[in-house]
């Protein structure tokens, strides 16, 4: 601009420079408005009204969603993984991340059809714990691969780190993002339907923008250990189950301290199944191994008995007390714990 106005006075030069800057700003604002309008049109286009027949026609050309973990996790799905404390849900999520990034074609007997980079959002474990776990898990299972599983361990919640997650996705294009876990990611907001709806919408926005799947690790309700698996066992807001595409559970078996039951429930994109897989935790490697497929879950869960059944058991125990039968033999006879029989005997004596 200075060379352009060499032959005029300083005052006039300043006025013309200011005018040029004003014109530049106006042109820039027009360009910004046009850009926003274009984006708005794109958003309107993706949300347009369509007839059922048009949707059906488009549906014929859709390819099946690829599997990241059998029908447990399909590509571009948001999946909830609620499980009780101490069951090893974080270990299973970490193992899946390793397998998907390693280029493996199966995990725990379930197909992996889509491999790629994985982001593990660690919001629970400290630096020392996550390093020790990775050392153990990768000790004998760290194959060469063009992909990688990445860990991000912020000390703040999910919403505070959305921009960092977006930047990661732009650079590494992950096929799977694991959030471990929901309670620490969103504090106590997991009890409120409104906040959970907001959270799932943000996750789905990321999922749609970057074509990746989400696995959200969560807790199951307290006191649900003696029930058969169902979707409402997840802790917190009931809206969670309605908003996600699928859910599955990892549960303890009372038959063996290292046994786990893996079972999927809800699925929008795949047929639901009543079958369950029996896993065993290898205490040395910390990896889960398939013990048996298609097991009867009820054989591994101590189901809560009805009041009528409990009363019948107690009446039988009282009759056996009068016969002088020991607590151990009574417990074996009616199928309850010895401590329960002992409590009944004390109550009867008092």
TrEMBL record:
Q: Where is the signal peptide?
A: none
- Keyword DNA-binding among UniProt keywords: yes
One MF term in GO for this entry?
DNA binding
KW Repeat (keyword) present:
no
One Pfam family, please name it. Answer: AAA_25
Q: Which InterPro entries match?
A: P-loop_NTPase
Recite the UniProt keywords alphabetically. DNA-binding, Homeobox
Q: Where is this region: Disordered?
A: 1-20
Q: What is this protein called?
A: Homeodomain-like domain-containing protein
